[in-house]
Amino acid sequence: MGGVSQVIVYHSIIGCILKGSSEWYTLRSISSKTSALHCWSCSSDATPDCADPLNATEHNKLFHTKACEGTMSPHHYLNEKPVCRKTVQYVSGERRVIRACSVPNPDERDIVDGPCTHLTTASYITIESCHICNTDYCNTATYVSGSWLISVAAMAAAAVGGFSTMSIAI
């Protein structure tokens, strides 16, 4: 080929082969500009370590996490970015924590880190809380729903005499 180099790129940004003269060289990309979102992926009914608080050891990280890009359904648009989702629900009275990769619902697309929007479930399932986020392993935290927090605050205030009636004489 006389000094002309030929470049063959294979499978996106995994690497390339350079051919110069009669020798072949392989270069692997050190890193890519984009990488898959990684989420915890487990359910406390099958894996007790998935319950709150999450047992986030390196051992569990090895077996209970997923790179989300490759796990999405082909029914979703290609330009949709996955999110990590954590749902706490009661199934026939049993508390279950589910952590997973997910494609956001249309009304969740602008949420970076916050509560999920409506979820449709079967009649025997009650949703306690749902949270989505878009950074690696972000679905570990224990989130408190607003109604639960208000109930606890009201009970605490009542216990310390925070509620009282006041009479005003005119």
TrEMBL record:
<keyword id="KW-0732">Signal</keyword>
<keyword id="KW-0472">Membrane</keyword>
<dbReference type="InterPro" id="IPR050975">
    <property type="entry name" value="Sleep_regulator"/>
</dbReference>
<keyword id="KW-0449">Lipoprotein</keyword>
<dbReference type="Pfam" id="PF17064">
    <property type="entry name" value="QVR"/>
</dbReference>
<dbReference type="GO" id="GO:0030431">
    <property type="term" value="P:sleep"/>
</dbReference>
<dbReference type="InterPro" id="IPR031424">
    <property type="entry name" value="QVR-like"/>
</dbReference>
<feature type="transmembrane region" description="Helical">
    <location>
        <begin position="148"/>
        <end position="169"/>
    </location>
</feature>
<dbReference type="GO" id="GO:0032222">
    <property type="term" value="P:regulation of synaptic transmission, cholinergic"/>
</dbReference>
<protein>
    <submittedName>
        <fullName>Uncharacterized protein LOC107266125 isoform X2</fullName>
    </submittedName>
</protein>
<keyword id="KW-0336">GPI-anchor</keyword>
<keyword id="KW-1133">Transmembrane helix</keyword>
<keyword id="KW-0325">Glycoprotein</keyword>
<keyword id="KW-0812">Transmembrane</keyword>
<dbReference type="GO" id="GO:0098552">
    <property type="term" value="C:side of membrane"/>
</dbReference>
